[in-house]
Design a protein that fits this description.
Layout (H helix, E strand, L loop, with lengths): L10 H12 L10 H4 L2 H5 L5 H19 L2
């Protein structure tokens, strides 16, 4: 048996999956763990500290330029 994680992009797909479950072909396992993950935890450590500082400086510069318009 294999477990797959899929993303539903069309509501009709959920209807098809429900029909497959009723035929005992698949079992739907709802996983809410992804929605409970904080974005700060999800992306923590993705970029280096140096890149983070550089990005922060760039954002600050863009905000200053926007405010000067």
């Amino acid at each position: 048996m294999e477990t797959l994680h899929i993303q539903i992009t069309n509501e009709k797909a959920m209807g098809l999956l429900n029909e497959l479950e009723e035929l005992h072909i698949i079992k739907i396992i709802k996983d809410d763990t992804h929605s409970k993950t904080k974005l700060s935890d999800k992306y923590k450590g993705i970029i280096s500290k140096e890149n983070g500082v550089s990005l922060d400086n760039h954002i600050q510069q863009m905000r200053n330029e926007w405010n000067n318009l």
